[in-house]
Design a protein that fits this description.
The protein is about 45% helix and about 15% strand. The protein is α/β, with parallel strands linked by helices. Strand 2, helix 2 and strand 3 form a beta-alpha-beta unit. Helix 5 crosses helix 7 and helix 10 packs parallel to helix 11. The chain binds phosphoenolpyruvate.
Length: about 270
């Protein structure tokens, strides 16, 4: 069984935002704010800046307890891949995590499940931990295809990923219709239900124990106002934050909500 008391995992995805000055300021505010909150052992936090600022932000975050993550990689060690960034380079810059399969990369850049799977395997082999994003469109939800879509993204995205490295994979459930403040919001119940579907798929592939152990974040317009309610449902182990991660006060408030929720002991299925 999942423990009653566990740490929430809160990650900020800065997407293609910030400048050198913005990234410096934001990272300092987050490091200082979390330092004051004494987060160690109470919550896990990471931020994922754009590639050009990884080194800079990594330096600022050193010793803060906040981990560094990247938003993408190319699934080769090195070579003639103009414009791409390898897993080794990310590790060299101090990254612990990489976000893969984000809906913006699937939708705008046409990334397939097969290509995402190559990235997942390359990241894990190199030593990076993976945050694999999955989620359905509104049309898919309305036509009853949510489970099939999640199943496909998980089965294909995790193809040939061995049981032994599963503890380095986090799943981010991000319904496309709830991302980016477009006016639709998932309810806590919808998040809980989708997370249960994801665990069911995990149970089928890897067994019940892995299904209970896998960390599943919710992502989609999480803000300070709704963070506590979105982090409360059973099976929601954290949050992947887009827009609100660009404001230190908002991001810190969400982290605080994560700490408070993890302290609620005795949650049951
Ligand atoms: C995202 O795109 O991963 C995301 C969760 O964005 P937002 O929080 O802005 O909806």
């Amino acid at each position: 069984m999942k423990p009653d008391l566990h740490k929430k995992f809160v990650v900020g995805n800065w997407k293609m935002h910030t400048t050198t000055a913005d990234a410096t300021h934001l990272a300092k505010e987050i490091a200082d704010g979390l330092g004051a909150m004494n987060i160690v052992d109470r919550v896990s936090v990471a931020v994922c800046p754009p590639f050009p600022y990884l080194g800079l932000v990594g330096e600022i975050l050193k010793g803060s307890g906040v981990a560094l993550g990247a938003q993408n990689l190319y699934p080769e060690k090195d070579g003639a891949f103009t414009g791409e960034v390898s897993p080794t380079m990310l590790l060299d810059l101090g990254c612990k995590y990489v976000i893969l399969g984000h809906s913006e990369r699937r939708r705008i850049l046409g990334e397939s499940d097969a290509f995402i799977n190559q990235k997942v395997r390359a990241a894990l082999t190199a030593g990076l931990d993976v945050i694999l994003c999955v989620g359905e469109t509104l049309d898919q939800r309305n036509s009853g295809q949510t489970e099939a879509m999640l199943d496909r993204q998980l089965t294909q995205g995790l193809a040939d990923v061995s049981f032994g490295v599963l503890n380095r994979v986090t799943i981010a459930y991000e319904p496309l219709w709830a991302i980016g403040n477009l006016g639709h919001h998932a309810t806590p119940q919808q998040a809980q239900d989708a997370h249960a579907l994801i665990r069911r798929c995990f149970a089928r592939i890897y067994g019940e124990k892995s299904a209970q152990a896998v960390v599943i974040q919710y992502g989609g317009s999480v803000k300070p106002e709704n963070a506590a309610s979105m982090l409360t449902p059973y099976g929601v182990d954290g949050a992947l934050i887009g827009g609100a991660s660009l404001r230190a006060d908002q991001f810190l408030a969400i982290v605080q909500a994560g700490i408070s929720e993890a302290q609620v002991i005795g949650k049951s299925a």
